[in-house]
């Protein structure tokens, strides 16, 4: 019966149509079958008559039938395969073989660093995003464009201030060193083969002091071709110690080989950014009632000293200080142009871009970025010699002011605080009753960063299958910062005690690398062998200079050190770091079915003592494409692809300061000499990270549905930390290896589906989910170290150790916490409650739909996590607070769960214990955020040809459009933070090529 309906019924219908409709006389019924190169049928393939809307799709066995005329042509298309157009003529039976598209999921080329592979044949865990996903996002740093797009990759934008470095972790925290300036968890950045120092640049600008600025800021997002993230041992071990925390490979665009002629591309988009959410605080009437109630509760008389907000300030005034201080709309403009061309042997691409972003703070401040890029590829006529050159140069200029109080002031100022300016336009100090928050605007600062990243790759084929390669790279980064602090930033009543001053900083980072390599490729029948042997010689030089000038006679001279009465040098260091290594890789596959990848590397680092400088690292990865077996081809044709893979290996970590193994001294000012600052320890050595992973990749229905499952376990031991010393030694710590082991394990799920693929409409979905688990596996004698009050063995590193909250004391009306040992005081002995912080799971859901020339893409980011509650000023003290944290009753109540209003020191201590140090402060900070939304329209070809254009696209983009959360605060991404949140942006523009 099934066979009848499939083969006979269409013929019967055709005959009926032929009888009833003479107009189609002369047409024929076409039969066909569509398969892939492995001989497997492809269901769901679109078969259409060219130039018409008539068509059909193949059934489960790849068969199709269609009525056509001799002059027709069949257009056969399917997502992931190269389309074909076949003339009908007199042929009525078609056997069609579709070739996989090189850019389809299975054959997607993956950059693995020293070699390339494909999504189908990789043995390691490598995630990739392409230019299409990131280039239109109005962000400064390319890492911010990865949020929600990759499993296992956690990117947090800690502030919405342009230029601030985001926080990134790949598969969790491996090292106990996790503070700014001493972070052992940074991944390795590589741009076009050149490794970069991933440590954020230190900043004296207080708005960026907690995050620093990122060296990747100077890259142009529109010039990035792809970003790959290497996660497991098989993928990262070839980088040895540098790959302990994962590797981020950034590849920039180049000219397309064989395109011939010159092509010009341009892009312009502009828009606005703003804070998308403000915290609800008390309005003036409720705030004044709360303040008066506090004095009544305390039995204290209000005076002009302790209650100037009640007795001196306007009682009818109300200001929403959040909107006043960061409620502005910031402009955003990006423009770039590139020229590319190619012939049979040479291709090139050269371009430049400009980006400007305003600020939501008061005043005319901005962030500017100018970038230039060059890419050149060339090969000889016999293709034995190949050259690849890339250069990226960026200039950052950031003149955001250096006030750290503006954001926090928006939450602490009373709603009836005075006007910011007097009638004559000067800052209002209201008779010294407050500190004007806008005073920081006069402390103008400017930071300029120049960054050059260059790389030259040379390759020569000695004999068929054997090539000699060399990678030569150079980077030069300078960051210059000047902060001007005139007396006007202070209350005029104190001018006789302060002077004009300036702070200056200059950081220089120079790096070069030479990597000679010998690559061998051989194919013998079903066997294929790839071998690579190479070496790395790298040297980094970092210079840091900090100066302070004081006593300028005139505010216009501030910054000119020659006009300062006194210039002091607070820091001047010149640090040299050398790194050498040899590495090897052996890759083998049999019939493209069984794969084995062996990697080894011997590293040497100048950060360790002479006897500890070298260490060996390596990994093994294996994979089996089990669907190549005849059993699956015969009995499970719906399973188009299946692969098992596994890897195990070790990587190291030397992310500590330089010269830590030596005694260190600093010069005293004048003729005094030297004084010691560090004790020597030549015996500490590498941290070791052992990584294990297993994965399963499945493709269903000719890869219309693709599922990747990964399970991993990483253990980082021999932790490099500062071992605490008794005060009598004169030093706080000494660098050493502690016998602590940190474990990160978890699961990662990646799912992509081609929901519909037609000639006019297509719909694709991708989903990723990360289920991480972090644990301090062991730490012998932790109670004898300074970490006893920070970590607990068997618990995550992201841990809060807290008092047990016991509610409100009915007698005092104040919050109470448990005094566990009953000694009448509160210390770490009473902190018996542990709460896990951080992410329990996170991921993203992305959809891409296209209809004719229209395209719609959107990404939802979701995070399940615990975090600290957002707290403002304790109720009753001078300063605003949250409506849900106040109780206006005069008498304590047994049933009341809120502390009564009070300005006493006892109420302050009780509130601090409750809000910052007890388990009551932990809350759910989960959220779902529409991270990106992009709509674009490409003009049809008939409109482009008269204009001489090859493409013209109009697009609209929205960033951080809305957030769904129960968290009360600025941004659940950073619970309890009073930093500027990630901004909501709307941009629109055009992109054209000709």
Could you characterize what this model shows?
By secondary structure, this protein is mainly beta. Among the domains are: 2-98, Carboxypeptidase-like, regulatory domain (Immunoglobulin-like), CATH 2.60.40.1120; 109-252, Beta Complex (Ferric Hydroxamate Uptake Protein, Chain A, domain 1), CATH 2.170.130.10; 273-341 and 798-994, no CATH class. It has a 22-stranded antiparallel beta barrel. It has a five-stranded mixed β-sheet with strand order 10-17-18-15-16. Strand 38 and strand 39 (761-778) form a beta hairpin. The longest helix is centred in the N-terminal third of the chain and has 19 residues, at 2-20. Residues 1-25 have low confidence and may be disordered.
- Beta-strand share of residues: over 45%
| SS-based class | mainly beta
What average pLDDT do the residues reach?
87
Helix content estimate: under 10%
How far is the N terminus from the C terminus? 57 Å
| Shape field | globular
* Number of helices, counting only DSSP H or I runs of 4 residues or more: 10
Main beta sheet strand tally, sense and closure: 22 strands, antiparallel, barrel
Uncertain ranges: 1-25
Give the SSE map.
Blueprint (H helix, E strand, L loop, with lengths): L1 H19 L7 E9 L9 E4 L5 E3 L5 E6 L4 E5 L6 E4 L5 E6 L10 E3 L4 E3 L7 E5 H4 L18 E4 L10 E4 L7 E2 L2 E2 L4 E4 L2 E3 L27 E7 L2 H4 L10 E6 L8 E14 L9 H15 L9 H4 L9 H6 L3 E13 L3 E12 L9 E13 L5 E14 L7 H7 L32 E19 L2 E20 L14 E25 L2 E26 L13 E25 L3 E12 L8 E12 L4 H6 L3 E15 L10 E4 L6 E5 L8 E14 L4 E13 L1 E6 L8 E6 L2 E17 L3 E18 L20 E4 L2 E4 L6 E3 L15 E4 L1 E14 L2 E15 L36 H13 L4 E3 L2 E12 L2 H4 L6 E9 L3 E2 L19 E10 L1
Parallel strand pairs: 1-7, 15-18
Antiparallel strand pairs: 1-4, 2-3, 2-5, 5-6, 8-9, 10-17, 11-12, 13-14, 15-16, 17-18, 19-20, 19-50, 20-21, 21-22, 22-23, 23-24, 24-25, 25-26, 26-27, 27-28, 28-29, 29-30, 30-31, 31-34, 32-33, 34-35, 35-38, 36-37, 38-39, 39-44, 40-43, 41-42, 44-45, 45-46, 45-47, 47-48, 47-49, 48-50
